[in-house]
Design brief:
The structure holds two protein chains of two kinds.
Chain A: E1 2-9, E2 13-20, E3 25-32, H1 37-51, E4 57-64, H2 68-75, E5 79-80, H3 83-94, E6 100-104, E7 109-115, E8 118-124, H4 133-142, H5 150-155, H6 168-180, H7 185-205, E9 214-217, H8 224-234, E10 238-239, H9 247-262, E11 280-286, E12 295-301, E13 304-309
Parallel strand pairs in A: 1-4, 4-5, 6-9, 9-10
Antiparallel strand pairs in A: 1-2, 2-3, 6-7, 7-8, 11-12, 12-13
Chain B: E1 2-4, H1 12-21, E2 25-26, H2 34-43, H3 50-64, E3 69-73, H4 81-94, E4 100-104, H5 111-121, H6 127-154, H7 163-177, H8 181-196, E5 207-213, H9 215-219, H10 227-233, E6 236-240, H11 244-252, H12 261-267, H13 281-293, E7 298-304, H14 308-323, E8 328-333, H15 339-365
Parallel strand pairs in B: 1-2, 1-3, 3-4, 5-6, 5-7, 7-8
Helix pairs in contact in B: 1-6, 2-3, 3-4, 6-7, 6-8, 7-8, 12-13, 13-14
Classes of the chains: A alpha/beta, B alpha/beta.
């Protein structure tokens, strides 16, 4: 069977999506990046290889996320795309009439505005990471609640308390203050959900015209408390797509499919699942060529230098073929 | 006397020519780098904007190299920049440096004051000598602006990656080293030859993006992550709204020599910002309208964090963008060095305007 693979290397999770030639999801993986993107990519490849039957043939690979360049060096990608475009592509494939995408991931949040299937505007969070997955994770941990139950508990609240959502530090001190006053955990959690939604709308969406259908995706879309808070604040139905947690990877796979079908002669750059068993090493050093002191990263595959980046002037990145 | 000045893009080339031709010894600070930023930030007030911090770093690096006279621009109006020279003078004095600082205020009716300051710097050279040195520097400015415009057009369509930037670097050296008008004319020919030898792709649907915003962040590639080059590499033709020649015309020439062009342009911003708000706030808005009218596909708006004039401009951008149907993206620049975030947004923006353009053309073809 002919398949396309999408890999989204994010700050918190590394996701894989394998689709068939009709764009149907065959297999998805959601792995923690845990600060080691190379290992995450390799273990993803290993899991896919073990799970899949031998008649699978990868015809194209796309990478996205903040680690898209790194992923491309390791697996051999045909398309390397930014996560905003990848998310939009995936969303359109699931809900073709989508006009607004709310995306909240581990470290960043974005809003994408579409009209007639075309991205017309977008924004990413700039001020701080309050309201992203990592912050919710941390608060759940502090309250001793498994993150999976966060939303469920929040939804039970009838009397949400008001929490400042402008900044993660203020939000946390507000929460501690409220908890010491004796508020119920569910009311604090619901209050936090509302604060995060307010913060998102004020700092990321910033007055952009939010029209339905609204799709909510990214890891945080698993949190029913946040979804509910969005619905209450916007007064519209919020759709969480089936593959909400791997939309970036799905988009990358779809983009790879499109690129390869446009160019039929082209062979995929994919190194094969064997890439997972090669030895990858990343090294970095500080260049002393000028006072910029750029940090140069070098990626070795089986002790062979495959890629370099990080320099402003191109002295190193332009000379990879040693 | 060893004269130095802050960096702002290629401004150091004509400035060096000007002062050297008047017999002053010039210390050009090292090009702005991470070190410049680090020492600049260390000694600057935290809430000041990036231009103060980086130029303070320039001064310290130049003083370390033996400079003893700093020439800095002043300013009037709501932008804080007009006060920066004074703040920097105090900071440098506190640090124990021994130096003179000459602040060139825009000559609003005080043109002779400017000449007097030049006379002081240049050890009482005559008006004629100042004029002649100024003429060569001015010619270099014009040539530099033309070069930058050409490079921003060609980079998007170069067939051999990096060719344009190599030619650009070479051209900068040629202009910098020209000692008189004859040598400069020769340099111009050399550059034209070099640039025209770059092999270009035939791109019919080239994307065009305008750059607007605060002058320093627009002109200094170190603080804007060389955004012109990055856009060029993404296959986008870039046009900047401010070039040094315009700035000199508007700020250093006496009013009777000024062109009327800026006033005409400012009219375009009138429905949104009817008065002067400092810096280039009003001009940024006017330029966006102008780019929309010229059929550009998008505009990128740059400002340093806490820049008041541009924040005023930013507040009306959603309206401007909607009415004139042109996508605008704002980048706020500060000390942080996360280039990845900027790159991701740039790529997404280019995808956005490309799709929009294709859709438009498709609409035209199918008669929608």
């Amino acid at each position: 069977m002919e398949c396309y693979l999408g890999i989204d290397v994010g700050s918190v999770s590394t996701n894989f999506a394998l689709i068939d030639k009709h764009g149907k999801m065959l297999k998805k993986l959601y792995l923690r990046t845990a600060g080691r993107p190379i290992e995450a990519i390799k273990s993803g490849l290993k899991i896919l290889k073990e799970d899949l039957k031998d008649d699978i043939k990868i015809k194209g690979v796309g990478t996205t996320g903040s680690g898209r360049k790194l992923a491309s060096v390791i697996v051999g990608a045909d398309v390397v795309k930014n996560e905003i475009t990848a998310h939009a592509v995936a969303s359109i494939s699931e809900i073709p009439t989508v006009q607004t995408i709310l995306e909240i991931g581990g470290q960043d949040s974005k809003i994408i505005i579409l009209r007639d299937g075309i991205v017309v505007d977008f924004a990413m969070n700039t001020v701080c990471a309050a309201g992203t997955g990592s912050f919710l994770d941390r608060q759940a941990q502090r309250l001793g609640i498994p993150i999976e139950l966060f939303g469920e508990i929040a939804i039970r609240s009838k009397n949400p308390t008001r929490i400042a959502g402008r900044c993660a530090v203020f939000a946390e001190s507000d929460m501690i203050h409220k908890q010491q006053l004796g508020y119920k955990v569910e009311d604090i959690l619901k209050g936090l959900c509302q604060a995060l939604v307010r913060n998102y709308l004020a700092n990321v969406a910033k007055g952009k015209e939010i029209k339905p259908p609204v799709v909510f995706q990214g890891g945080v879309a698993a949190n029913s408390g946040i979804k509910r808070a969005f619905e209450e604040e916007l007064g519209m139905e919020i759709i969480v797509p089936e593959h909400f947690d791997v939309m970036g990877a799905l988009g990358a796979a779809l983009l790879a499919k499109k690129a390869m079908s446009q160019n039929k002669q082209k062979q995929t750059n994919f190194y094969g699942f064997e890439a997972a068993f090669k030895e990858h090493r990343a090294e970095s050093f500080e260049c002393n060529g000028c006072p910029n002191l750029c940090e140069i990263v070098q990626i070795y595959v089986d002790n062979k230098l495959m890629a370099r980046w990080g320099d402003r002037c191109g002295r190193w990145s332009e000379n990879v073929a040693v | 006397m060893k004269v130095t000045f802050p960096h702002m893009g290629n401004l150091y080339i004509p400035l060096r020519t000007f002062f050297e031709n008047l017999g002053a010894e010039v210390v050009v600070p090292p090009l702005s780098s991470k070190r410049t930023l680090e020492i600049g930030c260390k000694y600057s007030p935290e809430f000041a904007c990036l231009p103060l911090k980086v130029t303070l770093g320039n001064f310290i690096e130049a003083l370390e190299m033996g400079a003893d006279t700093i020439v800095m621009a002043g300013g009037v109006g709501p932008c804080r920049f007009g006060y920066y020279a004074e703040v920097q003078r105090e900071i440098l004095k506190d640090l124990g440096y021994d130096f003179d600082m000459i602040v060139l205020e825009p000559p609003q009716g005080h043109f002779w004051d400017l000449i007097k300051k030049f006379k002081y710097i240049t050890n009482k050279k005559s008006f004629k000598e100042i004029y002649l040195a100024g003429k060569l520097a001015w010619k270099k400015i014009i040539l530099l602006d033309r070069l930058e415009k050409m490079v921003n057009r060609i980079r998007a369509v170069e067939l051999e990656k990096g060719k344009t930037d190599k030619a650009y670097k070479k051209a900068l050296n040629l202009i910098s080293n020209a000692r008189d008008e004859q040598e400069l004319a020769f340099a111009r020919q050399q550059i034209a030859k070099e640039i025209s030898s770059i092999k270009k792709a035939k791109e019919r649907n080239l994307l065009k993006v305008g750059l607007v915003g605060e002058i320093y962040t627009l002109l200094e590639p170190f603080v804007n992550f060389n955004i012109e080059k990055q856009l060029g590499e993404l296959g986008v033709l870039v046009e900047r709204s401010i070039y040094i020649s315009q700035w000199v015309r508007e700020n250093l020439l006496p009013s009777f020599m000024k062109s009327k062009e800026p006033e005409v342009l400012a009219k375009l911003a009138e429905p949104y910002i009817p008065c002067f708000v400092g810096g280039h706030g009003r001009e940024s808005v006017a330029q966006i309208v102008s780019y929309a009218k010229q059929g550009f596909d998008g505009v990128i708006h740059l400002l340093p964090l806490t820049c008041m004039p541009e924040i005023v401009a930013k507040s009306v951008l959603p309206m401007v963008s909607k009415i004139h149907s042109i996508p605008v993206m704002t980048f706020v620049l500060d000390e942080h060095s996360a280039e990845t975030g900027l790159r991701t947004r740039l790529e997404a923006f280019v995808d956005l305007i490309r799709e929009r353009k294709e859709e438009k053309e498709f609409g035209v073809l199918s008669g929608d």
